[in-house]
Amino acid sequence: MSAPPGASQAPSRNRRRPRRPQQQHPAAPSLAARIAPLSTAATPTSELPTPEPESTDNAKYLSNAKFADFYARGVLTKALFERIPFEYCTEVQEKTFLPIIEGKDVFGQAKTGTGKTIAFLVPAIEQLARRPVPPPEVISILVIAPTRELCLQIEKEAKMLFAGSVYRTQSVIGGVNIKVQRRDLLNERSDVLIATPGRLVDHIENSNLGPRLKTVQTFVMDEADRLLDEGFQKSLIQIANQVTPKDRRQTLLFSATVDNKIRDIARVVLKDKHEFITTISDADEATHQHVHQDYIVTSLAKEDAVMLTLIRRAARTPFPKIIVFYSTARGAAIAYDLFKGIPDFQDLPMFEIHSRLSQGARIKQADAFKTALKGVLFSSDVTARGMDFPNITAVYQVGSPSSPEQYIHRLGRTARAGAEGYGVLILADFEANVLLNKKEMRELPLKPHPEAQHLTDESSDEFKSAKEMVVQTYDAMDSVAKAQAYQAFMGYYNGFQKAFRWSKEDLVRTANHYALDVLRYRSPDGSNNPPPLLPKTVGMMGLKGVVGLNIVRPQPDAQQGYGGGRSSAPPPKKRQRAA
DNA sequence: AAAAAAG
C-alpha cells in the first residue's frame, strides 16, 4: 500500500496493526478504515483522505480481549478464528462468546455499531463447527431482522465467517424473486438463514419451509424492539409456531432498548434461565448523549433552502458523508430529486433509499453509499436502525420523527462506536414544540443551532441564493412525484392532528401549502388546485367533506400519483443511476 | 393514506 499524498504524517501504528477492528470503529481515521471495510472497489489515490491521529475515543467499545486469546483458550476453532479480520474484541463480543458457545439463552442489550452481529454469529457458528456437519437441509441458525438491508448486512458477515468452508448462508427477504429463493433453499445449504418476517412466513406457507425450521438450534432476534412493532406481530407468531420450541433451542434476543414490552417478550421466547448481557453502563454514556446536536425551527417553506445551505457548507469540508432522514418514503424521494438536480453538488454524489424503490435499486444505493468516501443519502426510516454505513459525519433530520426513539436511532447512524458525529434536526414551526417538549427529547444535549438565525434569514445572500436554486429546481420537476409527496405528507401528519390540536381543515391547509408553495406543484390543467386525491383515499384519511381538497373520480387510465388503489406493492421507480 | 414488511 503506497502512501497517498498527505499520509506521511500518519502515525505508523495505524499501519502496523492490520488486524485492528475496522467495523467496530468505523470512523477510526486509519486509512484502511476510511476506505470502508466492505469495499473491494479501487479508490483513486488522489481522493484518499488525510489520516488523522487515532483518537482514543474510538477504542471505546473495544475490550482488552483479543480473538487470539479465545483461540488460545480453545474457545474458537482455528478455521473460524482465522476468518475474523479483527484483532481486538468489542465489549459485547467478549461478554457473549462464552455463554452463547455454552448454549445458553442470551438477552443482549447493545447498541448497533458495537460489533453486535459478530457477537452472535461467531459463537453460534463456533457451536456449529464443533458438531458433525449436518445434512444439507438443516437450518442450524435462524436470524430474524426487521429490514431487508439489515439482513443483507448480516448475511455478508456470515459469508465472511463461512468463506472456504462447507457451510453456507442464505437470506430470505422480500422484494426479490421468491422462486429463486425457493430454488436456492432446496438446492443449497442454508446453515445460517437470515430473514425478514414477511418473506419467511411466505416460505413457510408456500415453500414448505415449516418442517425445516424444526431443525433450528439457535434462533436469533435482532433489533427485537423493532420486531415487536404492530406490523410484525402476526408474522412473528407464525414463525414462533414453526421454529423449534424454546426448551429445545437456543434463543438470542438483541435489543438496543430494554423496556417492559421487551421484557415481556423475553419472558415468552427465552428460557427462564437466560443470561442478561449489557454493555451500557452508567459510565458509558449512550451515543445520543455525547453527540453534538442542533435544531433549527423554521417555516415549511424555508426547510429546503436551509437544508441546501447545510449541504453546501458540508460540501466544503474534506469528506462529508451525510444521511438526511425524512418521515415518508415519498418525502425522501422528492428531496433526492431536488438535490441531485442542483448544479453546486457535481462533486458530491447523491443517493436515495426508501421503500418506494425496487429492492434491486435499494441494494445498489446502500452498497454504493457504504463504500462512498463522501456523499449524501436521502433516506426514509429504512436505514434508521442497525444499518452500518462507515464514517457518517452528520445526520440531518427534516420534519418531526415519529417518536423520540426514532430520532435517537437515526442519530445513531453517525458517531458509531464512539467516533465523532453531528446531528441537525430541522422542524417546521407547527411541529417543533410538540416534539421538543417531550421528556425524552429534553434529556438530550439538543440545542438551538448557533446559526439558526442566519440560516433562516430571508435577507441574507446565502439564504436567497439557496432559495432561488430550490425554486428553480422544483419548477423544473415533474408533477407526479410532487403529488405523491403531497399525499404522503397528508397521511403522515394526519397522525399528528391531536398532538398539534389541528382541525382537519388545518391539516388540509398545511398540506396544500406544502404542495403549492413548497413543492410548487402546478396542476396539468393550469388551475391552482392542489394535487388530486381519490375519494377512497380521502375516505381512508377521514377527510371526507373537508374544504380545499381536490377530489377526482377514479379514471380507468389513471395517471398514478394520486392513489391508483395499490396497497403496499412498491411500484419500482425507473430512474436509477449507479451513483 | 402514514417507516417497515408479502404481493
TrEMBL record:
Annotated keywords: ATP-binding, Helicase, Hydrolase, Nucleotide-binding, RNA-binding
Reaction(s) the record says it catalyses: ATP + H2O = ADP + phosphate + H(+)
Family matches, as InterPro entries: DEAD/DEAH_box_helicase_dom (IPR011545), Helicase_ATP-bd (IPR014001), Helicase_C-like (IPR001650), P-loop_NTPase (IPR027417), RNA-helicase_DEAD-box_CS (IPR000629)
E.C. code: 3.6.4.13
Catalytic EC class: hydrolase
Residue ranges, annotated region (Disordered): 1-58, 554-579
Domain Helicase C-terminal per the UniProt entry, residue ranges: 302-459
Superkingdom per UniProt: Eukaryota
Domain Helicase ATP-binding, residue spans: 97-276
Family per record: Belongs to the DEAD box helicase family.
Domain remarks: The Q motif is unique to and characteristic of the DEAD box family of RNA helicases and controls ATP binding and hydrolysis.
Function of the molecule: RNA helicase.
PANTHER family, per the entry: RNA HELICASE (PTHR24031)
Protein name: ATP-dependent RNA helicase
